[in-house]
Specification:
With 495 residues, this protein is α/β, with parallel strands linked by helices. The chain has 14 helices and 23 strands. The structure holds 1,4-dihydronicotinamide adenine dinucleotide and magnesium ion. InterPro entries: Ald_DH/histidinol_DH, Ald_DH_C, Ald_DH_CS_GLU, Ald_DH_N, Aldehyde_DH_dom. Keywords: Oxidoreductase.
Length: 495
């Protein structure tokens, strides 16, 4: 209340700058709805400066020995590690994600990401192709150039690091646009990076999607687009890429199934379902297991334990050490989530068994707090079972046989993640192989770690970035060089 407003700058060519227009975006703290910071409201002109700076920086960055680039990423990892608690607090404040369950683990993962890619610079290998004794044919993994990267707000530093670390390791430079709702923590990370890299290797700009994101996507000097966010904007980015035949990576939305077989230990599996649904990130996760398929034999009992355990989650101030679950990011998303809940409450074919609309008075009404909500006996055809809600609203759908449940699980235009819960390993593997998703987990709900190729099938995305193979596929281009060794010397004399 009456809090001091701090003006942050963005980073272009190693300098901390305002937008050329001088315009700013106010940053709201979602747990008390108070403005506490501003960032520059960058537009086309700022994008142009940033992209030109990265273009220039590319000319020398790609020539830096891979081993050196790796060393730089390791130094950045150490520096971030020293500052991770401070950055975690910024994340909690700007996103509303609880420090204990979300922001702190996110920063631990960010340190891991820089360290992982720091160790991979020597893996940018090519191949030799056996075309015969008189030919030397080999490939090189060359960087693509200037990467235009756009990130969302739900795990802003982790999702930013997933692009910065592999792009820089493989010799690209980067212009990254932060999400207008959560630019501060990633700015802090980019500031740390500046100490170790030449100006322009990483430019971090701030602004809205249409004023700053779109000019970045369409800038003629961008060589590769990498986007994480909604499927709707993903389509805009892909169109921009099509204009110039740019390689593009898209990590988009999801409506991931969680399938529970009747042979599970229910107490234990309930914890897994809560983790998979990312309730402690208010379910603002593209990976959220938001369609719960429960076998009819265990349906009632399982739902009972789930409701009970959800009741134990402490909802409150994201910066409070006792809090498990914080707030939704902003008013727009809060309204969207509440509209879905209203739709559910008004629907006669379903029943709400916990949660509902957020309280209108008391401490939770001071921020964008929502409460875990479950609708039971819903149909897989219903809007709430089809669309990505990006809030703590779970639909619980009963099933009787495996073929039917796999069919329902796959009846979605999304295909990002999936969760299968069973003690029978053959069933688990059979289900995992039949589900149309980029990432299937059997008997675990969390588990996102560096090194696995995370990404979507269908409209959940395109390409992978989070692994060695992801870096090679998404941030390098293969060049083939073929040399004929059978050339006669000019005078035909032997050397
Ligand atoms: P969004 O997709 O609009 O925002 C993500 C990023 O894209 C932000 O940096 C934004 O400024 C930028 N952007 C927006 N419009 C753009 C444009 N025309 N050109 C270039 N960049 C643009 O997501 P939003 O509006 O914050 O959330 C809406 C829904 O998107 C959520 O309810 C959720 O369903 C989904 N979402 C999915 C995420 C994921 O991790 N896959 C992350 C965030 C949102
Ligand atoms: Mg905000």
């Amino acid at each position: 209340m009456g809090e001091k407003i701090t003006d942050y700058k963005m980073i272009i060519d190693g300098e901390f700058v305002d937008s050329k227009s001088g315009a700013k975006i106010q940053i709201e703290c979602p747990s008390n709805k108070a403005f506490f910071a501003t960032v520059p409201r960058g537009d086309k002109e700022d994008v142009d400066l940033a992209v030109n700076s990265s273009k220039k920086a590319f000319q020398s960055w790609y020539k830096v020995m891979p081993k050196e680039r790796g060393k730089i990423l390791l130094q950045i990892a150490d520096d971030i590690e020293k500052n991770k608690e401070e950055i975690a607090k910024i994340i909690a404040k700007e996103t509303g994600n609880a420090i204990k369950t979300q922001a702190r683990p996110e920063m631990n993962l960010v340190v891991d990401i820089f360290r992982y890619f720091g160790g991979l610079s020597s893996e940018l290998k090519g191949e030799t192709i056996p075309l015969g004794e008189h030919v030397l044919s080999y490939t090189r993994r060359e960087p693509i150039g200037v990467v235009g990267a756009i990130i969302p707000w739900n795990a802003p530093v982790m999702l930013g690091a997933c692009k910065i670390a592999p792009a820089l390791c493989s010799g690209n430079t980067l212009v990254m646009k932060a999400a207008e709702d959560a630019p501060l923590a990633i700015l802090k990370v980019a500031e740390i990076c500046q100490k170790y890299i030449p100006p322009g290797v990483l430019n971090l700009i701030t602004g809205t999607g249409s004023e700053c994101g779109e000019p970045l996507a369409y800038h003629p000097l961008i060589n590769k687009l990498s986007f994480t966010g909604s499927t709707a904007v993903g389509k805009i980015i892909m169109k921009a890429a099509a204009e110039r035949i740019l390689p593009v990576s898209l990590e988009l939305g999801g409506k991931s199934p969680s399938i529970v077989y009747p042979d599970v230990n229910e107490e234990w599996t309930v914890d897994g379902i809560i983790a998979a649904m990312r309730f402690t990130r208010q379910s603002q996760s593209c990976t959220a297991g938001s369609r719960l398929f429960l076998h009819r034999k265990i349906y009632d009992n399982f739902i009972g334990s789930l409701v009970e355990k959800l009741g134990n989650l402490v909802i409150g101030d994201p910066l409070d050490e006792g809090t498990d679950m914080g707030t939704i990011i902003n008013n727009k998303q809060y309204t969207k989530v509440c509209d879905y809940i209203k739709d559910g409450l008004e629907n006669k074919n379903t029943e709400v068994i916990c949660g509902g609309l957020p309280p209108k008075s008391g401490p939770l009404s001071e921020g964008y707090y929502t409460i875990p909500t479950i609708f039971r006996n819903t149909s897989n055809e219903w809007r709430l079972a089809k669309e990505e809600i990006f809030g703590p609203v779970l639909v619980a759908i009963p099933w009787d046989n495996e073929e039917e449940v796999i069919k329902m699980a796959n009846d979605s235009h999304y295909g990002l993640a999936a969760y299968v819960w069973t003690r029978d390993i053959t069933r688990g593997i059979r289900a995992a192989h039949s589900i149309e998703s980029g990432w299937v987990q059997v008997n675990q709900g969390l588990g996102q770690a560096t090194g696995h190729s995370y990404g979507g099938f269908k409209q959940s995305g395109l390409g992978r970035e989070f692994s060695l193979e992801g870096m090679l596929d998404s941030f390098t281009q293969r060049k083939n060089i073929t040399i004929n060794l059978n050339t006669p010397s000019k005078d035909l004399e032997d050397l």
